[in-house]
Design a protein that fits this description.
By secondary structure, the chain is an alpha+beta fold. Helix content is 23%, strand content 48%. Helix 14 packs antiparallel against helix 15.
Length: 918
């Protein structure tokens, strides 16, 4: 007996020692094995610290407890640096004896404060798709399945505490955000028939679809007991309650997963008949003070889904909703919204979705003594059949007495009375006698003001009459901000347009206005930085789409239009909208002191690449004002800023627009003829630059143009100008050449001047050819204008020898006794020597600057890692950021050196070209 006790005691001591030592000894091996498996199967960085990985036999003995703190999954490209999953702590309890018996049983899984952020891009790629697939892995999975078919798995309970979950699917686009998501559950998965019990609470839920938020900051609670049977193929709802804010409902029935179909038999109904419960779902109603709203009335909600779901059919379903004898009243307002009665039935008896009917048989509400009624029935969805009635008056002056409208004012009256019924096939066949439709809508004295809106909206009068074929807009008189507008006309096929998005809305409308401020109507989209120390104009525009299912002719007559701070006056013409294109037909207006005629198209069929193609007739507009107004002029002809005079032109221009509606200058294509009757440029760097290079003796520094006809084209980012004549002070000149978007100039100028008027530089040039001072000669002096717009360069010669009169030619041929060839060689050697010195200096300076950039960039990158501290997730993200920063630094260094080498090469090439001309 004593020996037995000693043996048992020894075994216990051995187990205790093993329980303490084994997790420590094998911790590194565990980490190594996990890292190896992750690298082979996961395309992501799984971040955890081996020191935060604990394996214990004591925490929940006799279960093995594996726990981990600061655990995370960080994406690689194309979602590099994005956190897919992170948790403050993660714990798994495994029944020790179940492992020994080959029937692994998880006692529990616990996840504390996880942060899950799932993204699906428009191209379908997702940040959760991180599994590495290969033939070897697939074979290994198949082998594992074959050898582990007798291995069973079970779990007792699990819990997720205070999770933050975001699902952002941009293919739909759909956004779901859950804050403070807490979930517990448990079930014996080893049994053939068992109950899965779960409890879920969400403190805040937001759901948005296509940019519209349908659920805002709502609370959700789900208590569920689900019976699972038949090898996890049948799920029966036994006891459950779902509550969204104050609205709660329950399910009964089952869902069974068959081989190819899903069999359903579900009924659902609300367990709360309070009208207030449905009000809590309305965005903006569930707010502080909601409990104080007075309500009466009942609300019922229920339905069912029974049958088979597959690729070709859905279960038969039914949904009934009724609000009866309801009202609500805000305690601080005098008037209640009363007599609220709504009855809606959505029904499908056979599972064919086309046989669904929607019947809103009752919709009645009384707002301040003004009743409003509507009824709608829609059926036969494959050939839509409808029956709609609307009748009521709305006195907007009373709305503020029923609903809080802080900062907003409404006034006016709306009177509606309309009936329509029919079937889509009759509409498409234009059988209007089978579409009984009649009605009218009148708006009087409508006013809307809001403190968040920069302008007020007023509709003095609007009258519209409906028949099966068209809407006749007989009167529309409105003012929006500073803009007034009056319209009348006909709109046809409006019923088809509403029922079928493939149908085209057709109209012809007359539009008149004394003032139309498009800048005010477009509003402003501002981008504000977190710390804005300097007030900047951050206003941007966005692409204005032209609907493809609109076919409109707008006959316009507008006294004044303001657009992009430009004032257009006496604007008349037709705007024809069709197939996603707005065509302008003989649109005429006055601006910049001249007259415009525009024909052409604005095309948004591809909204990512909006385009324009216009023919412009322009007469007598100010050249300097055109610079202030048009980006194209600013970029291609900045000299226009200081030119005093007018121009006329006939031109065509086309290209693409950027998403801010500004022209993409790289795509501009233009061709035309400029006609300048008289213009002048004074005090320009152009005239001073010419004076410096020619040493001209002139009475003034003015460049003049008179009766100039200038042919030009814009193509591939380059403005090409054919030869045209100008006056430079007292002399005449002919100019041609190109300028680019980058600001590079390449112009040739030929000036006709008497040799006696030039300075010593030109006379020296003549004397090199033995012509003395050439005082009696007339010279066509070639001048090259290069460099950039900001730093133009002027030089004489331009590859040609000066042309002089016969007297000058005779003087040049006389013997001078000077070895011209030797003098030229000396000049060439000096040019090349000076160029090499300049090039070497540029390279040396770039090397010093590059070394400094690299040192500073690498130091900043290393500092990021140091600042991340010991937190492994922050450290991993910092390492990725540092790696990227060093790569960017290397790019900057290489760019500096390349640009220096390129600049040095250009200097040498320019020197070679200059030397070759001597």
């Amino acid at each position: 007996m004593k020996k037995l006790l000693i043996i048992l005691l020894s075994i216990i001591v051995l187990l205790v020692i093993s329980a303490i030592v084994i997790p420590i000894i094998f911790k590194d091996d565990i980490k190594s094995a996990i890292d190896k498996e992750i690298e082979a199967s996961v395309n992501a960085d799984i971040v955890f610290d081996v020191d935060n990985l604990n394996v214990s036999l004591f925490s929940n003995f006799p279960s093995i407890t594996v726990s981990m703190n600061d655990f995370g999954v960080i994406n690689r490209a194309p979602f590099q640096g994005h956190i897919l999953f992170a948790a403050e702590s993660f714990e798994v309890e495994i029944n020790l004896m179940s492992v020994i018996n080959g029937e692994m049983r998880l006692k529990g899984i616990f996840l504390n404060k996880p942060d899950i952020h799932v993204i699906v891009l428009k191209d379908g790629s997702s940040n959760y798709d991180i599994a590495i697939t290969s033939e070897e892995i697939e074979e290994e999975i198949e082998d594992t399945e074959e050898t582990s078919s007798e291995f069973s798995f079970a779990i007792d309970h699990w819990a997720i505490n205070n999770a933050h979950i975001i699902y952002d699917d941009r293919t739909l686009p759909f956004l779901l955000e859950l804050k403070d998501f807490t979930h517990t559950g448990g079930g014996d998965f080893s049994q053939e028939l068992f109950d899965l019990t779960t409890n879920t609470t969400i403190a805040s839920m937001n759901v948005a679809y296509d940019g519209i938020e349908y659920i805002s900051d709502k609370q959700l609670g789900v208590d569920l007991i689900l019976e699972i049977s038949d090898d996890f193929s049948k799920y029966t709802f036994k006891d459950n309650l779902i509550r969204l804010n104050d609205f709660g409902f329950a399910f009964d029935g089952y869902v069974a997963l068959l081989e190819e179909d899903i069999d359903t038999d579900i009924t659902f109904s609300s367990n709360d008949n309070s009208f207030k419960s449905i009000l809590s779902l309305v965005p903006g109603v569930f707010m502080e003070g909601f409990e104080a709203i007075e309500t009466i009335g009942s609300f019922s909600f229920g339905g069912m889904a029974k049958g088979t779901y597959n690729d070709t059919r859905v279960p038969a379903f039914n949904l009934n909703m009724e609000i009866k004898d309801a009202m609500f009243k805000y305690p601080d307002l005098p008037t209640a919204v009363t007599d609220i009665n709504v009855k809606t039935v959505i029904n499908n008896e056979d599972g064919n979705i086309d046989n669904t009917t929607v019947d809103v048989s009752t919709f009645h509400v009384n707002m301040g003594g003004n009743p409003f009624d509507a009824a709608l029935k829609v059926s036969e969805l494959d050939n839509v059949k409808w029956d709609l009635k609307v009748n009521g008056n709305i006195d907007l002056n009373t709305v503020s007495t029923m609903v809080p409208m802080e900062g907003t004012t409404l006034a006016g009256a709306i009177d509606m009375n309309m009936q329509t019924k029919g079937q889509l096939s009759a509409l498409e066949a234009e059988q209007y006698d089978q579409l009984p439709t009649s009605g009218k809508m009148n708006i009087d004295g409508f006013e809307y003001t809001d403190e968040t809106l920069e302008y007020d909206v007023t509709i003095n009068k609007a009258d519209a009459n409906f028949d099966p074929r068209q809407i006749e807009l007989s009167t529309f008189d409105a003012k929006i901000g500073d803009s007034d507008m009056q319209m009348n006309g006909l709109i046809t096929n409006y019923i088809g347009y509403v029922l079928d998005d493939k149908q085209v809305l057709v109209g012809k409308v007359n539009f008149t206005s004394t003032m139309l401020d498009l800048d005010e109507l477009a509003g402003e989209e501002e981008t504000i930085t977190e710390e804005e120390t300097v007030e900047e104009d951050t206003t941007t525009l966005s692409v204005i789409p032209i609907p493809k299912n609109i076919d409109f002719i707008l006959n316009s007559n507008i006294n004044t239009v303001i657009v992009s701070d430009m004032k257009l006056e006496n604007a008349t013409g037709d705007i024809i909208v069709k197939d996603g294109i707005a065509n302008l037909s003989n649109l005429t207006f006055n601006t910049l002191g001249g007259e415009f005629v525009v024909n052409g198209a604005y095309n948004t069929q591809d909204i990512t690449k909006p385009s324009y193609d216009f023919k412009l007739g322009i007469k007598d507009i100010s050249i300097s004002e055109s610079y202030k107004t048009f980006t194209t002029v600013q970029k291609f002809a900045p000299i226009a800023e200081n030119v005093v005079g007018d121009l006329s032109t006939e031109m065509g221009i086309s290209g693409l627009l950027q998403q801010d509606m500004m022209p993409d200058l790289n795509t501009v294509a233009a061709e035309g003829l400029l006609n300048i009757a008289k213009a002048a440029l004074k005090g320009s760097s152009l005239t001073s630059g010419l004076a410096n290079v020619t040493k001209l003796k002139s009475d003034n520094d003015e460049i003049t143009m008179k009766d100039v006809l200038m042919n030009f084209t814009i193509e591939n980012g380059k403005l090409n100008v054919q030869p045209f004549d100008i006056g430079v002070g007292n002399y005449s000149a002919n100019v041609s050449g190109t300028s680019t978007l980058a600001g590079n100039l390449d112009y040739s100028m030929k000036m006709n001047i008497p040799a006696g008027a030039v300075g010593t530089q030109v006379n020296s040039l003549l004397s090199q050819y033995g012509a003395g001072d050439g005082s009696s000669s007339t010279i066509t002096l070639p001048i090259k204008i290069g460099g950039t717009i900001d730093d133009p360069k002027y030089s004489l010669g331009a590859g040609e020898k000066p042309k002089v009169t016969d007297m000058a030619k005779t003087a040049i041929t006389q013997t001078t006794g000077v070895d011209i060839d030797a003098e030229k060689e000396k000049q060439r050697e000096k040019i090349m020597s000076d160029a090499k010195n300049q090039a070497d200096k540029i390279k040396a300076t770039a090397k010093i600057q590059a070394d400094k950039v690299k040192k500073e960039g690498y130091a900043q990158a290393d500092k990021l890692v140091i600042q991340a501290g010991s937190n492994i997730i922050k450290k991993k993200i910092a390492q990725e950021a540092a790696k990227k920063m060093k790569a960017e630094t290397d790019k900057q260094v290489n760019k500096l050196l390349q640009e220096a080498n390129q600049q040095a090469d250009e200097i040498m090439k320019a020197a070679e070209a200059q030397a070759a001309k001597i």
